[in-house]
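Example record used in the benchmark description.
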Amino acid sequence: MQTTLERDLRDISQAHKLNEMPGLLRLIPSQSANLFKARGLSDKLGISHETVESYVSLLEAIFLVQRLRAWAPGIGPREVHHPKIYVNDTGLLLYLLGADEKRLRDDDQITGKAVENFVAMELVRHADSSEQNPEVFHYRRDRDELDLVLENRAGEICAIEVKSNSKIREKDWAALQRLRDARYYA
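Model output (structure tokens):
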């Protein structure tokens, strides 16, 4: 029986499909730190969402991208929400976005993506060696969105909102406070 990865590798090895990968590699960085929706990417690229899923699975297998599942109270709801996608190396992210040091410094959209991408990927890298061994998620519920949620095996969570701005406003704390007050966790 073939594994999903073996099937994906077989599918992308077909020469007539290989020309679609560069477009996906240019588009994923623009979606970094956003919800991953294969259908949305497939519409933009004019390829099937199954092909997008296969290519992204391959990019994950070779450690170029990482999908983070959505955190929700309880286990089942986590599987139905869209993951977020990140580029594993922030330098590669910036290269693929065509951003230099000046643009990183001056373009808020690039800066925000790069900072969140860097923080998320550093947390993922260090989670495995942590005594708590947390899993890293993102969180969205109604109007609330938090960049990262870490949950250890005991079900304890730590929510993180990443900001690249030097000024923190009151509203920047609101989703963190609502999650804390919801008491979804023990």
